[in-house]
Amino acid sequence: MFDIQEELKKLPQKPGVYIMHDAKDAIIYIGKAVSLRNRVRQYFRPSHNEGLKKEQMVRQIERFEYIVTDSELEALILECNLIKEHRPKYNTMLRDDKSYPYIRVTLGEDFPRVLFSHQMKKDKSRYFGPYTSAGAVKETIELIRKLYSLRTCQRSLPKDIGKERPCLNYHIHQCMAPCQGNISKEAYRQNIDQAMGFLNGNFQPILKELERKMQVASENMNFEKAIECRDLIKSIQQIAQKQKITHTDMEDKDVIAMASDGEDAVVQVFFVRDGKLIGRDHFHVNIGSENASPQILATFLKQFYAGTPFIPKEVMLQEEIEEAEVIAAWLSQKRGQKVYLKVPKKGNKEKLVELAHQNASMVLSQDKEKIKREEGRTIGALKEIGKLLGLEDIKRVEAYDISNISGFASVGSMVVYEKGKPKRSDYRKFKLRTVAGPDDYASMHEVLTRRFSHGMREQEELKERHLENDYGSFTRFPDLIMMDGGKGQVNTALKVLDELGLKIPVCGMVKDDNHRTRGLYYHNREIPIDRHSEGFQLITRVQDEAHRFAIEYHRSLRSKEQVHSVLDDIPGIGAARRKALMRAFQSLEEIRQADVGTLAGIPSMNERAAQAVYEFFHGREG
Q1: Could you report the per-residue pLDDT of 376-391, keeping only the tens digit for each?
Q2: Count of alpha carbons within 13 angstroms of residue 198, beta-carbon side
Q3: Is the peptide bond before 46 cis (omega within 30 degrees of 0)?
Q4: What is the CATH topology of the domain spanning 566-621?
Q5: Which of 292, 351, 347 is nearest to 322 (CA)?
Q6: Mean pLDDT (whole number) for 134-152
Q7: 3.20.20.10, 3.30.70.270, 3.30.420.340, 3.40.1190.20: which CATH number matches 385-559?
C-alpha cells in the first residue's frame, strides 16, 4: 500500500522529474522540479491553490514516483521525452503533430542536387527552411531546377560519367547533362551558388537575365522561348512577393504568441528566416492543469522544439514565461549556439508579436464558431431526436444492418455514434452462424443476441474482478438502439432485449417508397420529422453508415474469397456447380428442400452431383 504522507518524507532535495499515477496506475501528470522535495510536497498542502484542474488532479493521485537528475536542464529534457511518450491527461498538450519540409542542397557531392527533405541532418548538405507549405517547396525546387539546369538523377558523379545515355531532362533543356561530361565541376558549382543565392532571396540577377533572354527571343521572333521566359519571371515574382522583409538584421527568428479562453488555446508562430517572413502556422493546445499564459507558453515551447530539428537564434514571445533560463539553455544545447528568448516592448518587433497574437485570437474565435456549428450537428441533433422520442440524455446510439446476396453469406453490422459522432473503434461485424436464407428478422435476432449476450458476460467478468469502471469491447450498452426499418425490425430488437432482461429504448428508421428516410417508428407509431432539421440529418447519416459498413464488410469477404459457403463442404461440388446452384435457387433453404430430380436438372449438375447435394443436407438433418 502506497502511503503518500510517508513517501513525501523520503523525497530528495535534488532536481528531477515526478510522475503522478491514478487508482488504475495510469500516468495522469508529469512535471519537473529544481527540488523534488519542495515541489511534490506543494501538491498535498491544504493551503496550496493552483486552480480547479490541479485540485481535480490531486484528488486522483494514488501514488507518485520520481527520477533524480544531475541538473534542472537534464530534468527538462527528461520531462519533454516522458510527456511525449505518455501524453498524460493533466499536462497541457500540443494537439498538432506537425513537421516542416526543408530544401536540401547536397554540397557533399561533386555535382550537387536540390532536393525536398522532411528533416535536417548533420551532414555536408546546406538546408533552407523550414517552410510551412510542402507544395510551395516542391514548386520552388522545380523552378530552381529549370532556372539553373540542375540535375535530378541519383547517378554517382563523376564516377558514372558517360556510362549511360542522358535522361529526358537533357533533351528538354532542363539539365546540362553533367553525366555526359557536358559541364565542368566548376561551372556547375557556379549554377549551384546562384541557386542558393535565389533561396536566400537574391532574385534580381536571374530576373535581369530572364528579361534579357525574353527580349532577345522576341527580337528573333522566337515567341515560344519568349513565353517560356515570361512564365519563369512570373513564377519568381510570386515567390518574391511571399518573402516580405521584416528585419534588417537578417537573423532567424520565431515569433510566438497565444490566445486562450480557459479551456483551449491557440498558439501562432511566425517563421522568420534570413530576415524574411517565410510563413506562419497555428497550433491547437489542450489546456491541462497549467492554466496561466506563461505556463502554457512554456509548455508549448518545450513540446514544439522537442519535435522540430531547426532552432532559430531568437524566439520572440508576447510575455515572460516560466523557466525561461532553463528553456533557453536547452534550446542553446539543441542548436549548438546561444539562443535568446526575448519579449519585445516597442518598435517593429513588438508590432510583429502583437500581429501574431491577433492571428491566434482570430483562429480561436473561428474555431469556437466551428465547434458551435459542429455541436448543432451532433449533440444538438441528438437532443432533437431525444425530444421527439421523449428521451433525455442520449449519448450513445447503436444502429444495425444486415447484408446478403439472396441469403448467401449473410453478415451483420453494428455502428456506434457517441455525442452525435461516429465512434469507429466500437464498430463491430458479425458473420451469421445460424440463419439459412434471406431472413433479415432471424439474422437481426442472431446479431442482437450475440452482441448483448457478449456484453452481459463482459460486465459480469469485470464485476467479479472489481473493475466495474473498465470497458470491454461490448460492455457499454447504448442509450438508444436505431433499427434500419420499421415495425418488424423494432419488434425483433425488443424481443431480444426482453429475452435477455434488458431495458433499452428501440426506434426504427423508416424509409419511403423511394428508399429515403421519412420518420421514426417508436412505441407502435410512426413519428414524422422535419427533413430540414439537424436531427433528421443525423438519422440519415446513422442509417447510411450502418448500411455502408455492412455492404463494405460483405464486399470485402466476397472480394477476398473468404465466404465459406455451406456448399463448399459438399463433396464433388466445385466452383462452377456452386455458382449454378446459387443462380437457380433463392436461398440455401430452397436447395435443402429440392429433390434429386430438381437438382439434377440444373445446368452443370448431373445425377451423381445432385445425389451428393441431397444426401449432404438430409444427412445433416438426420
Answers
A1: 778 888 999 999 999 9
A2: 27
A3: no
A4: DNA polymerase; domain 1 (1.10.150)
A5: 292
A6: 83
A7: 3.30.420.340
